[in-house]
């Protein structure tokens, strides 16, 4: 397996920190809110046995330096960044993408705007306001306001607890993981990334809209979209995944673990994800420039 390659890429007003692991068909991982280039190391290492796996720090995260750090970042901007990084690392080769939660929403925007950039997108539990019922929209509008208030008053642990409980995420159980997963204490890097999520990325994700034209483009586009969910639980993100599958006329894939199964069950998750990618997307090699 090829050695990890760590580098920076000058994009639109930012220097992006990225990591490329392995060699083979190109694969980009877009983790959930607050997740950076190293939050899915165990999953990325497994997938690097077969793929060239690209991860990076998004705008607002610690090792990506932006020219204007006070400027709000939209999900559309995040998708443009992902496309620019894929262009830089993989050239014109179509890229497979796995996105979880916020990362899945970014992946959908990328597939809409750049359908030939993404060969297959596994969209795992995207919390899309566009797929919420009227009562859910009202409920989660309040939840986001409450989380921002609590974050300002009491800090990130209390705000994150409110968001997880409000969206019905059961992944807070510290015992629910594979044996090799070891939870490290919060560091300056991870806390800064969580704070960036709570102050900006969470709101941008929730305010993102896909209208009728966007859904039509996704259904007709060149990207194969695979909606996916974790274990069978009735949470808002899992309901969104099921609604996405129905809207696109696709089968709903079931992946191991809960909302962040890619972190808690990387072995089983990686094997299942590889199965989805090989059954739905191309497996040819590519040139990696990073």
UniProtKB/TrEMBL annotation:
Pfam families: Abhydrolase_6 (PF12697). One of its GO terms (biological process) is glycerolipid catabolic process. Residues 29-269 form the AB hydrolase-1 domain. It comes from Micromonospora olivasterospora. This is Pimeloyl-ACP methyl ester carboxylesterase. It comes from the Bacteria. One of its GO terms (molecular function) is triacylglycerol lipase activity.
